[in-house]
Design brief:
CATH topology: Jelly Rolls
Largest sheet: 7 strands, antiparallel
CATH superfamily: Galactose-binding domain-like
Order of helices and strands: EEEEEEEEEEEE
Helix content: under 10%
Structural class: mainly beta
Number of helices: 0
Shape: globular
CATH class: Mainly Beta
CATH architecture: Sandwich
Number of domains: 1
């Protein structure tokens, strides 16, 4: 029997890129504030790394959802981009492998400061094998004409979903 499983990555666990978003605290939540003033190629970004667990069903898709909020307005659309690389240890693959890139549009909550969960960004299961190490880069594409959110978009958390077809490996 297959199960959908989910893992959470809190913003405290991500690493900032060369153009990092600002740290922010909203209520009791640590967030990363992605501004709207970025130009193409200069967007703020963060990185996260995780391991494909031993209960991952081979060839099943991996999905990512972002949790974010708008600080300054209760309308508009934020465009997010996720770049992903999956490599297997003890193989000829290198960390510089070309990423798979997906984007998603997400509308701000009509309640100012309200949390939004994006639709899931799907990466094909053909990219993954058991025990792969996955690197992901998240950025807001505020320079894109589709991003109409004037203010800051605060990233609160990201989640990834995968299909599990077993309890894990026999020890």
């Amino acid at each position: 029997m297959d199960y959908i499983k989910l893992e959470k990555v809190e913003m405290e666990k991500v690493k900032k890129g060369a153009k990092p978003p600002d740290d922010n605290i909203i209520g009791l939540f640590y967030t990363l504030s992605f501004g709207a003033e970025a130009v193409e190629g200069n967007e703020e970004f963060v990185f996260a790394t995780f391991h494909i667990l031993s209960d991952f069903k081979p060839s099943s898709d991996l999905q990512i959802a972002l949790y974010w909020l708008s600080e300054g307005q209760n309308s508009g659309v934020a465009k997010w981009e996720a770049s992903l690389v999956s490599i297997l240890h003890d193989s000829a693959e290198t960390l510089e492998k070309a990423p798979t890139v997906e984007t998603i549009l997400s509308t701000a909550n009509s309640n100012l400061g309200g949390l939004v969960e994006t639709n899931k960004i799907t990466f094909s299961g053909t990219l993954f094998r058991l025990h792969d190490i996955v690197g992901i880069k998240i950025k807001r594409k505020s320079s894109d004409v589709a991003d109409t959110l004037v203010g800051v978009a605060d990233l609160v958390m990201l989640e990834y979903y995968y299909t599990s077809d077993r309890l894990g490996e026999k020890i």
